[in-house]
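Question (not urgent): is this output format expected?
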Amino acid sequence: MANYVTSSDTIRNRAAWISALASFTIFGLKLGAYKITGSTAVLSDALESIVNVIASLVALFVIRFASQPADHEHPYGHGKAESFSSAFEGGMIFFAAIMIIGEAVKALINHEPTQQLEMGLLIVGGAALVNLALGLYLKRVGKTHHSEALRASGAHVISDVLTTAGVMVGLGLVMLTGLQWLDPVVAILVGLQLAYSGYTIVRSSLGILMDEQDEDILENLAEALRKNRVPGIIDIHHLRTIRSGRFHHVDAHMVVPEYWDVTHAHEVTHAFENRVVADYDFDGELAFHLDPCKKSYCSACDVENCPIRLQPFKEGHPFTVKSLTGGPHPTNQVAYDKSGSSQKN
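Got this back:
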């Protein structure tokens, strides 16, 4: 596990450096295109690239910080710093969108002319190709190595490519029709698209910071629990996850036979935890609070030769996202209070 984490951190840091260098290059190309053409649409594209430059520098620091192991002050690690980075990037995108729309409205009112649009198209097109390669690379590394900052940067860079494509279409229309007002109109549309993109990034990042449930992640965890289930793991409920970058901490209640002694229950649980973590897509740890069955799960318990069984085994509880995150699921005639303890009716 340690070697994997070290290798993963190296790849993530390298991706952050590549993103920073490429962002500077792309911004320079777009700024040059704006100087040549005087196009408001090209200016809007260049302003978005400023966000890429700032965000890549922030991500470069944050990824190094997030890779630090857990310590006394940060028992769950430093991974949430990546979500702060992506939230910051989303906010910067939204701010850039407001600036773009403001500049475009002024250009539309003042009827500012454009020039040398053919050269501008060539430069902006070259920048778009570099951006496309960068965005695909960042998304792949972010997904493979579970980096929220790189995934957000990759998504933003891909949206930047789409923005540039829209700008190129706008410049082409100005060249074909001679209608100068199309240039600021395209810039306004670019700004609106960026405002929405910034909002979605901020919304996703805040969800992670507030430990909002992610159905896809929970389903992946449920599959790992189902795959490694063994007799004696009768029920799992009240499952909660804390996401800290690529590291996840999982808490849950596990129901085991009440006649098991502490040593045996610990051995079974520890082995189960290790197998689940190995099959889970993220690095992490599981912490189970063990609940005795109290003869309340007999028809769902598949332990053979149980000395305290009251009812025959019928079918085990399925480990679904709904059942895992919900309350206990006794099968005998018992009632559970809010604390999770059982009481006979």
